[in-house]
Give the backbone structure.
Amino acid sequence: MARRAKYLAFVAASVAALSPSIAQSAEPGAITLTVQLVSEQVGNTAHDYLQVTSVDRFASAVHTVPTRPGSAYCLWSEWHLIRVNAVSHDRTYGVYIYDGCNNDAQVFPVPTDIRQGSCNNDDNLFPSGKFSVCPIIPEGHVPAGLPFDQHCEALTEADTSLFANVDPPTYDTTKPTPLTLTTTFASDMTQRLSEGTCSDVLDWRAVAWTVHWPDGTTDRAGGSGQSGITLVHTIPAAKSDTSQQASVVVIAHLHVMGQALDFDQNGNPVVRSVGGYVDISNSDSATGSGAAPVDEPPLLAMGAIPIGQTGDGRLAEPDASAAPVARAVTIRGRLLALWLSPIVVRPGVEMVDGVEVGIATSRVLRWHYLGGPTDAPPSEGTTAGAHGSADTPVVVQYDHAERTDAQGNPIDETVLLSVVVETAYPDGTVQTTTLDGSIAVAIYYAGLTGPD
Amino acid sequence: MRRFAWQIGGIAVALGAVLALGILVFACGSPATVHLSPATTTPRPSPTADPRIAEVEAAAKRYVEAVEQSAKTGSATMVDQLVVHGSQAEGNAGITADFSRENHYNFMSNRIDFVNSSWQVTVNSSTASVSVQYSVFGHDADWPSLRPRESDHESAPVRLTLELEYQSGQWLVAQST
């Protein structure tokens, strides 16, 4: 008996020293798994996740159950939305729990709370019998660790917060009828979006609208922030002599930013920033998955902001507001600094369902000088094959006069370059491209009329 | 009188045959009737002990031995071979192995001492249930090195309840608590 007491004391001490999640089993001598739903507040939204307590004979350990498998932990889960209560906004999820350390065998822990119990006896949802546990997530709560996309599977919730009113509600199809569509968002839109995206939404805005009218035509409208829109569309007269309900399908393309409770590689809960596009619609068939934004690339040309060496030998810093040019002018025998910057012939554009929702910005990251040596002193000029970043200029110098062709037309010098350009879109997408080209340099010298 | 005795005897034999035939028909049952062996329950020993009880006890012992072994190996492979595929017991098979892997220590047993008087076995045609208590003799050790943290001693008792199914000629554990 004394040995047993000594053993128990030692186990308790060892367990306490190892991990705070391990404890002496309250009922020693069992091998069981129990599960409970725990909540952690992130901003205005409670994030719920599962915790499994395993009792192995004489000790117990508490495991957070992440939503993806990992090498640093055993138990992981897979969540599926199986029911939404439209009145209470409770959502019931069917959750598979797997033991990643045992060939992903499905685990069936015993729920400590009947509200998070198994769905095995639900005759209306027979397939749910295969789930390990079926937690109910109440209003204001979201499951933790689910991706910010349709896999949260609750965006239909947010659809109820988009109102679309059409005036008149019915019309005579034999006469042309102007229909006025007015859309508004419910005051609880942010909460509905949080629940629909399994995150704590901090900001959202409508970046574009798509409207399908009853005559089959489609209108698109630009962003409206957190406000609705008003559109007027005239339905042409048809041959059939009937009264028709003015049924209009409205899709609001939203950009949503927020934060969410996720799991790190060790399975511990961590708060992450999330964001993305979701669609909200009054259509019964709406899925909530956002139309993927399309990034149209910019049309760019080689350009530079030229800075000539002054009479006292200085090279000034470039004017950040100056527009880049494809042709620079220099004075014979003086240094010319070319600060590379792309000429944006047409900017990159971010489109959602055909509507422009933002303009991209492009900038030079680095350059590669492909030309030969110029007359610049080696210590000051750019050498052949040199590389540089955007905050260093390409420096050239020409000690001769502008050359001319047989007809006496001037021939500019050519500064051959290859530059890497980064284009950043409003949704955070960044693309890099390589732009090959040249900057033309005209040479003047004292005594000639200066450049226009 | 003697002839009368023969008549009585003949009637008795006939009645006996009818009764035996009736019992046989009843035992075989109609097509809608499922024949089940009578449930047999310990406590032991019983003069009419069903041999299947020993089989179920042996299956339970193998299961306990495999669980104890999984604490050392950190692998539930041996336990998996003794459980019904897709059952709750398969999900529980890794509890002890996982405890070793995740907490890097466990109680390692050298001997399992079943409490003979604790066996409760119920056997039906293809299912059985077992309740048994046992303790293990061993020590806490690091995992995976198995370096002892203490000397051997008898553990606290463990109470185990198993539901088993007879599949492919062997008793497999379907549920464990």
About this structure: Confidence is low (pLDDT under 50) at residues 1-20 of chain A. The two ends of chain A are 105 Å apart (CA to CA). The first strand of chain A starts at residue 22 and ends at 24.
